[in-house]
C-alpha cells in the first residue's frame, strides 16, 4: 500500500483507469476533469485489436501485453463498480482482395488464413470483392461508450477517488524546476491553485495545450451506429478505412473517419458521413439498409509515430499517459499498470522498463 497523493489531469479513459488503479494501491487521488463527454473514451469503437490493426514492433508488443491483462483489469473494475464493462470475445475478421494481400499483412502470422468460402461462413453477406481474410480470434471488443466508462467512474468512486468535474487545468506550476501544482478554473470561472508533487497528464488530444513540447495532435473521427437484425453479424469486420463492431444489444458501431486536417473542429460533416456509408456498402452491402441510430465524433490523441507517450515527462513530478491515438482502449490496461508501478516505485519487469523507454516522450528527437 502507498499513501502517495496524485493529481490526475483529465478524466477521460486514461485518467479514470489510472485513478482507479492508483486508488486500489492506496494512493490518495484527485481527478480534474474539464468536460466528461468530450473524452474519446466515450467515442471509441472499443476494438481490442493489436493484430487486426496490423500493428508492428514495440506498439504490437505493447498491445499484446495489454490484451493479456484486459480480462483481469475488467474483472477488477466490475468487482469495484458492480457494473458490467461489456467485454466480448467476438474475434475480428480482416478481409482482403486476394490471398497475396492477406499473406503480406503485418500480423498475418497471428491469424487464421481464410479463403472466400470460410470468409462467407464467418461474415454472411460480405461483398464479393473480398476473396480472402484473416481471423484474429484473440482480438475482441469492449463497450467503452455505454458500459466501460460508466463502470470505471463508479469503480473510482467506490475506491474513494475525489472528482472535480468541470475543472480545467490552465497551467502547470514549477518551482526549482519541479512540479509543485496546477492552476485551475472551475465552471463558474473561479481560479484556484492546487499544490501537488505528483501529477499524471491524461488530457488526451488536448495534452499539448498544457505542455507544448509534447508532439500530440488531434485526429478527428466520425462514427455511426446501426440497428441490425439480431445475430446478423457475429464478428467484428475490420476493413480498410471502415469497421463494423457488433454489440450485444443488436447495435453495430461503424467507424471511423480519420481527419487530421479537421484540427479541433467539432461536429459531423456530410462528407464524413458519406464516406462511412461508402465503407459500409463496400464491406457488407445489406447493411446500408440497416437503420442508423446515432451519430457522433471525437478526437484521437495522435503522435508522429502513432504510439503513446508514457512515463516521466519533461518536468520532474509530472508523469505522462497520453497520445494513444486509435488504440487507447486496447492500451488502457498496460498503461495503468506501467504508470502505477512507476509512480508508486514498485519493482517492474525488464519488459516494463523496456516499454517505458520505447514510449518515452522525447523519443522523436533521436
Ligand atoms: C472515432 C474514434 C474511434 C476509436 N476507436 C478505438 C478502438 O476501436 N479501439 C481503441 O483501442 N481505441 C479507439 N479509439 C482511441 C481511444 O478512444 C483513445 O485513444 C482514448 O480514449 C484516449 O484516452 P485519453 O484519456 O488519453 O483521452 P480522452 O478519453 O479523450 O480524455 C481526455 C480528457 O481530458 C480532459 N481534458 C483535456 N484538457 C484538459 C484540461 N486542460 N483540464 C482538465 N481536463 C482536460 C478532456 O475533457 C477529456 O475528458 C478511438 C478514438 C476515436 C476518436
SSE arrangement:
Layout: E1 5-9, H1 13-24, E2 28-33, E3 47-48, H2 57-81, E4 87-88, E5 92-96, H3 99-104, E6 112-115, H4 116-122, E7 132-136, E8 140-142, H5 144-158, E9 162-165, E10 168-175, E11 178-185, E12 191-195, E13 199-201, H6 207-210, E14 217-227, E15 236-238, E16 243-246, E17 251-255, H7 270-283, E18 292-302, E19 309-312, E20 318-322, H8 328-343, H9 350-358
Parallel strand pairs: 1-2, 1-13, 2-9, 5-15, 13-20
Antiparallel strand pairs: 3-8, 4-8, 5-7, 6-7, 10-11, 11-12, 14-17, 14-18, 15-16, 16-17, 19-20
This protein binds flavin-adenine dinucleotide.
Enumerate the strands of the largest sheet in spatial order, edge to edge or round the barrel: 6-7-5-15-16-17-14-18
Please give the count of helices. 9
CATH topology of the largest domain: FAD/NAD(P)-binding domain
- CATH homology group of the largest domain: FAD/NAD(P)-binding domain
Mean pLDDT: 96
Number of domains: 3
Helix and strand element order: EHEEHEEHEHEEHEEEEEHEEEEHEEEHH
Give helix % range.
25-40%
Task: Enumerate the spans where pLDDT stays under 50 for 5 or more consecutive residues.
Answer: none
What is the CA–CA distance across the termini?
37 Å
Count of strand segments:
20
Q: What is the name of the CATH class of the largest domain?
A: Alpha Beta
Indicate the CATH architecture of the largest domain: 3-Layer(bba) Sandwich
Shape annotation = globular
Quickly give the structural class.
alpha+beta
Q: Roughly how many Å is the radius of gyration?
A: 21 Å
Amino acid at each position: 500500500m502507498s499513501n502517495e497523493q496524485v493529481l490526475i489531469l483529465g478524466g477521460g479513459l486514461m485518467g479514470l483507469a489510472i485513478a482507479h488503479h492508483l486508488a486500489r494501491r492506496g494512493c490518495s487521488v484527485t481527478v480534474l476533469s474539464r468536460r466528461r463527454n468530450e473524452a474519446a473514451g466515450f467515442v471509441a469503437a472499443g476494438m481490442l485489436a493489436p493484430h487486426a490493426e496490423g500493428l508492428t514492433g514495440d506498439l504490437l508488443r505493447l498491445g499484446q501485453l495489454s490484451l493479456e491483462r484486459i480480462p483481469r483489469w475488467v474483472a477488477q473494475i466490475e468487482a469495484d463498480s458492480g457494473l458490467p464493462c461489456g467485454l466480448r470475445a467476438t474475434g475480428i475478421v480482416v478481409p482482403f482482395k486476394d490471398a497475396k494481400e492477406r499473406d503480406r499483412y503485418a500480423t498475418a502470422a497471428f491469424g487464421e488464413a481464410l479463403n472466400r468460402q470460410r470468409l462467407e461462413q464467418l461474415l454472411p453477406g460480405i461483398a464479393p470483392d473480398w476473396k480472402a481474410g484473416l481471423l484474429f480470434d484473440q482480438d475482441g471488443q469492449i463497450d467503452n461508450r455505454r458500459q466501460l466508462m460508466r463502470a470505471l467512474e463508479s469503480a473510482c468512486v467506490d475506491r474513494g477517488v475525489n472528482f472535480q468535474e468541470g475543472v480545467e487545468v490552465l497551467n502547470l506550476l514549477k518551482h526549482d524546476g519541479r512540479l509543485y501544482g496546477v492552476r485551475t478554473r472551475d465552471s463558474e470561472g473561479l481560479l484556484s491553485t492546487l499544490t501537488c508533487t505528483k501529477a499524471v497528464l491524461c488530457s488526451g488530444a488536448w495534452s499539448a495545450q498544457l505542455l507544448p513540447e509534447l508532439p500530440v495532435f488531434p485526429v478527428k473521427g466520425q462514427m455511426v451506429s446501426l440497428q441490425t437484425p439480431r445475430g446478423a453479424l457475429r464478428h467484428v469486420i475490420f476493413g480498410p478505412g471502415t469497421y463494423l463492431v457488433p454489440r450485444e444489444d443488436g447495435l453495430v458501431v461503424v467507424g471511423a473517419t480519420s481527419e487530421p486536417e479537421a484540427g479541433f473542429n467539432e461536429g459531423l460533416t456530410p462528407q464524413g458521413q458519406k464516406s462511412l456509408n461508402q465503407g459500409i456498402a463496400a464491406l457488407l452491402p445489406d447493411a446500408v439498409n440497416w437503420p442508423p441510430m446515432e451519430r457522433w465524433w471525437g478526437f484521437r490523441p495522435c503522435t508522429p509515430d502513432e504510439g503513446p507517450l508514457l512515463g516521466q515527462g519533461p518536468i520532474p513530478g509530472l508523469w505522462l499517459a497520453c497520445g494513444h491515438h486509435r488504440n487507447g482502449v486496447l492500451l488502457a490496461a498496460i498503461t495503468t499498470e506501467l504508470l502505477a508501478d512507476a509512480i508508486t516505485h514498485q519493482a517492474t519487469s525488464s519488459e516494463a522498463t523496456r516499454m517505458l523507454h520505447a514510449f518515452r516522450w522525447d523519443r522523436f528527437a533521436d
